[in-house]
Specification:
The protein is mainly alpha-helical. About 55% of the residues lie in helices and about 10% in strands. The strands form 2 sheets. It has a two-stranded antiparallel sheet.
Length: about 120
Protein backbone atom coordinates (compact mmCIF):
# COMPACT_ATOMS: atom_id res chain seq x y z
CA UNK A 1 0.00 0.00 0.00
CA UNK A 2 1.05 3.54 -0.56
CA UNK A 3 -0.46 5.37 2.40
CA UNK A 4 1.42 8.25 3.88
CA UNK A 5 -0.68 8.63 7.04
CA UNK A 6 0.06 6.93 10.36
CA UNK A 7 -1.78 3.70 9.61
CA UNK A 8 0.96 1.28 10.63
CA UNK A 9 0.00 -1.84 12.55
CA UNK A 10 1.99 -2.07 15.78
CA UNK A 11 2.36 -5.84 15.33
CA UNK A 12 3.48 -6.34 11.72
CA UNK A 13 4.63 -2.73 11.09
CA UNK A 14 2.80 -2.64 7.74
CA UNK A 15 -0.23 -0.58 6.76
CA UNK A 16 -3.18 -2.07 8.65
CA UNK A 17 -5.29 -4.50 6.67
CA UNK A 18 -8.86 -4.89 7.88
CA UNK A 19 -8.10 -3.00 11.11
CA UNK A 20 -10.03 -3.87 14.27
CA UNK A 21 -10.45 -1.85 17.47
CA UNK A 22 -8.90 -3.15 20.64
CA UNK A 23 -10.58 -2.34 23.97
CA UNK A 24 -8.04 0.47 24.47
CA UNK A 25 -9.20 2.07 21.15
CA UNK A 26 -5.98 1.29 19.30
CA UNK A 27 -6.18 -0.78 16.12
CA UNK A 28 -4.29 -3.73 14.64
CA UNK A 29 -4.75 -5.96 11.57
CA UNK A 30 -7.65 -8.38 11.94
CA UNK A 31 -5.38 -11.24 10.83
CA UNK A 32 -3.33 -10.99 14.03
CA UNK A 33 -6.45 -11.30 16.18
CA UNK A 34 -7.68 -14.21 14.06
CA UNK A 35 -4.29 -15.92 14.50
CA UNK A 36 -4.49 -15.49 18.29
CA UNK A 37 -8.05 -16.85 18.35
CA UNK A 38 -6.93 -19.82 16.23
CA UNK A 39 -4.05 -20.47 18.66
CA UNK A 40 -6.57 -20.18 21.54
CA UNK A 41 -4.69 -17.28 23.11
CA UNK A 42 -6.85 -15.64 25.78
CA UNK A 43 -5.41 -12.12 25.45
CA UNK A 44 -3.39 -9.66 23.42
CA UNK A 45 -1.04 -6.97 24.64
CA UNK A 46 -1.69 -3.73 22.78
CA UNK A 47 1.49 -2.78 20.92
CA UNK A 48 0.71 0.92 21.45
CA UNK A 49 -0.11 1.18 25.16
CA UNK A 50 0.81 -2.31 26.46
CA UNK A 51 -2.65 -2.87 27.93
CA UNK A 52 -3.43 -6.58 28.27
CA UNK A 53 -6.79 -7.18 26.60
CA UNK A 54 -8.93 -10.30 26.70
CA UNK A 55 -9.88 -11.56 23.27
CA UNK A 56 -13.62 -12.08 22.95
CA UNK A 57 -14.65 -15.30 21.22
CA UNK A 58 -16.09 -13.43 18.27
CA UNK A 59 -13.06 -11.13 17.89
CA UNK A 60 -13.06 -7.36 17.90
CA UNK A 61 -15.12 -4.71 16.10
CA UNK A 62 -13.85 -3.67 12.66
CA UNK A 63 -12.42 -0.15 12.54
CA UNK A 64 -14.34 0.88 9.41
CA UNK A 65 -13.40 4.54 9.77
CA UNK A 66 -9.68 3.73 9.63
CA UNK A 67 -10.22 1.20 6.86
CA UNK A 68 -12.09 3.83 4.82
CA UNK A 69 -9.33 6.40 5.42
CA UNK A 70 -6.68 3.93 4.25
CA UNK A 71 -8.71 3.00 1.16
CA UNK A 72 -9.38 6.66 0.33
CA UNK A 73 -5.72 7.60 0.68
CA UNK A 74 -4.66 4.63 -1.47
CA UNK A 75 -7.22 5.66 -4.12
CA UNK A 76 -6.00 9.26 -4.10
CA UNK A 77 -2.35 8.17 -4.26
CA UNK A 78 -3.10 5.92 -7.25
CA UNK A 79 -5.03 8.73 -8.95
CA UNK A 80 -2.18 11.18 -8.32
CA UNK A 81 0.29 8.69 -9.79
CA UNK A 82 -1.86 8.25 -12.94
CA UNK A 83 -2.26 12.01 -13.38
CA UNK A 84 1.47 12.56 -12.92
CA UNK A 85 2.20 9.91 -15.56
CA UNK A 86 -0.30 11.50 -17.98
CA UNK A 87 1.21 14.93 -17.35
CA UNK A 88 4.74 13.66 -18.00
CA UNK A 89 3.60 12.02 -21.25
CA UNK A 90 1.85 15.22 -22.37
CA UNK A 91 4.94 17.24 -21.52
CA UNK A 92 7.12 14.89 -23.60
CA UNK A 93 4.71 15.20 -26.55
CA UNK A 94 4.68 18.99 -26.16
CA UNK A 95 8.50 19.11 -26.17
CA UNK A 96 8.62 17.02 -29.38
CA UNK A 97 6.13 19.36 -31.04
CA UNK A 98 8.08 22.39 -29.84
CA UNK A 99 11.34 21.02 -31.25
CA UNK A 100 9.61 20.32 -34.59
CA UNK A 101 8.15 23.83 -34.64
CA UNK A 102 11.56 25.37 -33.89
CA UNK A 103 13.13 23.35 -36.73
CA UNK A 104 10.42 24.42 -39.19
CA UNK A 105 10.71 28.02 -38.06
CA UNK A 106 14.47 28.04 -38.58
CA UNK A 107 14.04 26.42 -42.03
CA UNK A 108 11.41 29.00 -42.91
CA UNK A 109 13.64 31.85 -41.70
CA UNK A 110 16.58 30.61 -43.81
CA UNK A 111 14.33 30.27 -46.85
CA UNK A 112 12.86 33.74 -46.32
CA UNK A 113 16.32 35.22 -45.85
CA UNK A 114 17.58 33.55 -49.06
CA UNK A 115 14.52 34.92 -50.91
CA UNK A 116 15.25 38.38 -49.53
CA UNK A 117 18.86 38.16 -50.76
CA UNK A 118 17.66 37.07 -54.20
CA UNK A 119 15.42 40.12 -54.37
CA UNK A 120 18.27 42.48 -53.55
CA UNK A 121 20.45 41.17 -56.34
Amino acid sequence: MNCTGNYTCGICLYIQKDPVYLKCNHSVCKKHIDDLIYMKQPHITCPECNEVIEIPGNGFVENTKLKDQINKENYLNAKEKRLKSQLEKSLEEFNVLLEDLNLKLSEFSVTQFDHFLDLRR
